[in-house]
Write a structure and sequence with these properties.
Distance between the termini: 30 Å
Number of helices: 6
Number of domains: 2
Order of helices and strands: HHHHHEEEHEEEEEEE
CATH class of the largest domain: Mainly Beta
Radius of gyration: 19 Å
């Protein structure tokens, strides 16, 4: 799936970067390029961007920094530590990875036969004006869920068919909150009835509700936010099919917590 450009830098991201940089300067050994390669964070430029608040920290990167620097995510990002605890609460505790303090370890990787691991992609689907598409996405973590839950709620337990991406923005509130993780059935690449879909529309990634107009053949692209002055409905006519690509249907979602 495609991913979006970096999110807007907010005050909380700047504070996190400052705290992380202080720990990094004290504990890191070698160059930023070596650190990025050894930890899997990426290039020297990526490490530099995280340390200088040019790119906001995400949970996967924070876990890698914490492990390499011998500290807790909580030490530089209470926000992401809370998110780690939320994700951990959905994961099974195992003898190999006890659920003690999720903020002090990478995401758990259980191998129990009753669970399937779903990929969390570094993709932010805009619930707003839209986020620009670029060429590829990175898998930042795996989320273990019960196979029985997946079959009941997602219609499949095959991890190739369901990917997790983030909702960015408030246009789908009160249904889907900003920051929620969405379970997307990527088998659905065409309209299959009214529902919530991840879309590429006019070269932007969005998450919206699609509603069919049987008489005209048009599709209404709808925000659930009741403020229609800010989030007006859009229309995709049959002639505009090349401007609208369905990337998958949203089956479930859960809200991640903020401090």
């Amino acid at each position: 799936m495609p991913k979006t450009k970096a999110s807007k830098i907010e005050d909380v991201h700047t504070r996190e970067a400052k705290a992380l940089k202080a720990i990094y300067v004290e504990r890191a050994v070698g160059s930023q390029a070596e650190f990025g390669a050894e930890t899997g964070i990426g290039t020297q430029g990526m490490v530099w961007q995280y340390l200088n608040a040019k790119s906001p920290l995400n949970l996967a990167a924070a876990a890698k920094f914490a492990k390499a620097l011998g500290c807790a995510i909580e030490d530089f990002s209470p926000r992401l530590a809370a998110e780690a605890r939320t994700v951990s609460a959905l994961s099974p505790a195992t003898d190999a990875a006890p659920a003690a303090d999720a903020s002090r370890q990478a995401l758990p990787q259980p191998t129990h036969a009753d669970y399937v691991q779903l990929e969390i992609h570094d993709v932010r689907m805009s619930a707003g004006a839209g986020a620009e598409c670029i060429d590829r996405s990175d898998i930042v973590a795996n989320l273990p869920v019960l196979k029985s839950w997946a079959l009941e709620n997602l219609g499949t337990a095959n991890p190739e068919y369901v990917k997790l991406v983030t909702c960015a923005g408030i246009s789908m509130q009160p249904t889907i909150d900003d920051g929620s993780l969405m379970f997307v059935d990527v088998r659905v690449r065409e309209f299959r009835g009214d529902g919530i879909y991840c879309l590429a529309w006019n070269e932007h990634l969005i998450v919206k509700r699609l509603i069919a107009d049987v008489l005209s053949g048009n599709l209404r692209i709808v925000s659930d936010n009741p403020d229609k002055e800010l989030y007006p409905d859009q229309i995709a006519t049959p002639r505009e099919a090349d401007r609208l690509t369905i990337l998958g249907q949203v089956r479930r979602w859960f809200k991640t917590c903020k401090p």
